[in-house]
Design goal:
The structure is a single chain. The strands form four sheets. Strands 7-6-15-14-13-12-11-10 form an eight-stranded antiparallel beta sheet, sandwiched between helices. A three-stranded antiparallel beta sheet has the order 1-2-3, with helices on one face. It has a two-stranded antiparallel sheet with strand order 4-5. Helix 5 packs across helix 10. The two termini are 37 Å apart. The protein is of the alpha+beta class and 450 residues long. It is globular, with a radius of gyration of 21 Å.
């Protein structure tokens, strides 16, 4: 059993599940789970740790939890981590924001105290958390009342070179690329280049999918709120692209929706994604350390991914023009937490509208809940590009990113104009990110003034 008070990853027949170990229970963080495992004995023979959970309730929160039985069996489909996360319908939620609700003592103290940055606590705790999780490095940036208040790197970029992580170290932010692309699309809609609710087939003669007339129903809003009906990626599971439900009727996380919209935008802009995103978002927002296409300069500043044991993985992320055309809008942005925080500030503390920045009405529409997210442990919705976690009368915007050896997170309150961005270069990075998010000092900071 994992020790109390820790966040861990359990692996079952190739499936990883994030769990937080409370004082009395194992609380699943990934929220859409497989059913009972029929392969538990096979997992044991392969020396894989199968949790085999039995469902119960925590005494404290009443949230569904999983205890580790000796004999129960689980249904754990054979798939890799990215497939499981995405097919679970909770990929971008990464882990639950349960600590943002039900923490009465934190709520009380946050209301009575002025905003206090969690700097001292993080500087003391993060090195220990990295060591415990065998994650080589982490970089973090904190936003307080609409300004970049603090940033710092911890650990190393590469366990071979031992180069330190700094605030200039570049990471792949994975699915956190989506809100950045969504912001640009919203500005195109404000300019009348694209209609948020106009069928995308209006803008291109090319059919992204043949033989299904429901393609003519799909809009930019559907793509950006994961309601197209497309599966996540056609490459996963070897199934051809299909529309699995009527567009706009429900939520299902889909990178294909972003790829489809990006193909239409590239046609309208008559430019590749790297060029128009640099010109209209990255450069205007001061994101000088961000790009989509790998080059030697970026490579010299980039962290390197590591496995769950902290061993260097053989390949680093090197997006090309071809891969960015396909995946860039959904997951190929190379950036620093500090640069991403500059983008996040434009969302939570917007400057006056100009050629690049949204109007207040456009920003508010971007953050307006569009569709409920099913099976989430805390009430959640999806907006335009962002997940929205509802904590009583207050909302937090949220996105995470996951790829082999990379894990990232961004959380913010538009009401408080505060939040943080953190990125790691280890396969167990979610353990560290979970502890950062769940720490008392970060909770007090995020809820300050409520």
């Amino acid at each position: 059993m994992p020790r109390m008070g820790s966040l861990c990853i359990t692996k079952c027949y190739g499936v990883k599940r994030r769990v937080f170990v409370s004082n009395s229970n194992l609380v699943f963080i990934s929220t859409s789970l497989p059913g009972p495992c029929r392969n538990w004995s096979a997992c044991r023979k392969r020396n894989l740790s199968c949790p085999g959970p039995a469902i119960g309730l925590t005494r404290r929160t009443g949230i569904r939890t999983m205890r580790h039985p000796r004999t129960s069996q689980l249904n754990c489909p054979v798939m890799n981590r990215r497939q499981y996360l995405r097919k679970s319908g909770q990929a971008a939620l990464g882990f639950s924001l349960l600590p943002l609700a039900g923490c009465g003592s934190l709520e009380h103290s946050a209301k009575q105290a002025a905003t206090e940055l969690p700097v001292a606590d993080l500087e003391r705790q993060v090195p220990k958390w990295l060591e415990e999780a065998r994650v080589p490095g982490l970089s973090i940036a904190i936003i307080d009342r609409g300004r970049l208040a603090w940033n710092r790197g911890f650990g190393v970029t590469n366990t071979t070179s031992r180069a330190p992580v700094t605030t200039d170290t570049i990471f792949t932010c994975c699915s956190m690329s989506k809100p950045v692309f969504a912001y640009f699309v919203m500005k195109l809609c404000e300019k009348g280049v694209l209609g948020l609710d106009a069928p995308l087939t209006k803008y291109t003669p090319e059919r992204y999918l043949q033989g299904d007339p429901r393609l003519d129903l799909i809009t930019a809003r559907h793509c950006l709120s994961h309601t197209t009906g497309f599966q996540n990626w056609r490459e996963e599971g070897g199934n051809p692209l299909s529309i699995q439900f009527s567009p706009g009727t429900r939520w299902s996380y889909s990178g294909e929706g972003y790829a489809y919209l990006a193909s239409v935008v590239a046609r309208l802009m008559k430019q590749p994604l790297e060029d128009y995103m640099q010109a209209h978002v990255l450069s205007p927002f001061g994101m000088a350390s961000s790009a989509y296409i790998w080059n030697e300069s970026i490579g010299n500043r980039m962290a390197w991914p590591h496995d769950s044991e902290g061993r260097l993985l053989p390949k680093n992320k090197k997006p090309t023009h071809a891969s960015v055309a396909r995946y860039g809008s959904a997951g190929d942005l190379l950036t620093t937490p500090t640069d991403y925080a500059r983008f996040l500030i434009e969302v939570v503390a917007p400057k006056p509208s100009d050629e690049f920045r949204l109007t207040r009405e456009g920003r508010d529409e971007m953050l307006r809940p569009q569709v409920p997210v099913p099976h989430s442990q805390q009430r959640s919705s999806w907006a335009i590009g962002w997940a929205i976690v509802h904590d009583g009368d207050h909302d937090f915007i949220y996105h995470s990113g996951d790829d082999t050896g990379w894990h990232t997170i961004g959380v913010a309150s538009a009401a408080n104009k505060s939040g943080f961005v953190a990125m790691t270069n280890g396969e167990s990075g979610t353990q560290v990110l979970g502890k950062v998010l769940m720490s008392d000092s970060m909770q007090r900071f995020l809820k300050a003034g409520y």
